[in-house]
Design a protein that fits this description.
The structure is a single chain. Strands 5-4-3-6-7-9-8 form a seven-stranded mixed sheet, with helices on both faces. Helix 7 crosses helix 8, helix 8 packs across helix 9 and helix 12 packs parallel to helix 13. Helix 3 links the parallel strand 4 and strand 5. By secondary structure, it is an alpha/beta fold. The protein has two domains: about 190 residues, Vaccinia Virus protein VP39 (Rossmann fold), CATH 3.40.50; about 80 residues, DNA polymerase, domain 1, CATH 1.10.150. It contains 14 helices and nine strands. The longest helix has 14 residues. The radius of gyration is 20 Å and the shape is globular. The chain binds S-adenosylmethionine (SAM). The site of S-adenosylmethionine has 23 residues, from helix 2.
Length: about 300
Amino acid sequence: MPTSSAEEGPHHESVLLKEALWWLRVKPGGIYVDGTVGLAGHSKAILERSSPDGFLVGFEWNEASYRLAKEKLKPFSGRYLLVRENFALLKEVLKKTGKAPVDGILLDLGLSSYLLEGSGGGFSFLRDEPLDMRMDKRLPRTAKDLVNQLSPLQLEELIRAYGEERYARRIASAICKARRQEPIRTTRQLAEIIFQAVPPKYRHGKIHPATRTFQALRIVINRELENLKKFLEDAPEVLKPGGRLVIISFHSLEDRLVKKAFKDDHRLKVLTKKPILPAPEEVLSNPRARSAKLRAAERI
Ligand SMILES: C[S@@+](CC[C@H](N)C(=O)[O-])C[C@H]1O[C@@H](n2cnc3c(N)ncnc32)[C@H](O)[C@@H]1O
């Protein structure tokens, strides 16, 4: 999966694209929100499908992705508004734009291939980059702050709760031992500490041993679960009756939140009893789709 090329610039293969459009029931003249514009794959498809007069409000809080998306959406000038904001502010931003209520809202959570591999943001344990992991540079704390400042117990709990990592205690204690020698500054340093901390049989398993710890740090730094909770509380309020809410998630902590919020909200009817998964061909051509789950609900 290429993440960039000289002619095309950074690339991200959109996950569950056809399925998202179908569940959103995109139609000409509709008003839609893309809460996670990224490199605008879904946004572009929504604007195409809703032409000639559909409108899109897009949220993207990462500055570089926001600029790239603006470029990609140029052909749709006049039919969209892109804001560099947190989707947790959905209700507040939509009120200001006067575009609510809307016909459909999409979230495609997590990282784009660009953020993971091409942004230099310190998200990947396969690269050697400063340990940052903030999707939005306006956020106050970096991964470097957390790994160097939290107590051993706080680190262990963070890694266990948000990474669902069974070797959380060993990893936390190895991090604290290593930082007594020198501060942990890079993704490679951290990945190596984790690699050495886990039992040898876990080092060459299905996933890299640092996967879960990196996920945990990223979730906490970006307040991912808090943002999703606030969004889930507010989204039904800004949907028209019959309007659709479609969420693609990539790990069980997110999926559990979405599933429960859809089920418990009396304003919503659940459309997907079981989550929609990518077809095997999609997973083959785009490994990032592997853990994707799509859930859809309709405003009553
Ligand atoms: C998986 S990518 C989206 C890819 C996009 N659907 C596409 O097809 O190109 C997720 C994007 O959402 C952004 N994002 C994540 N959390 C966000 C939040 N709370 N508010 C705004 N943007 C967010 C990330 O910066 C990232 O660019």
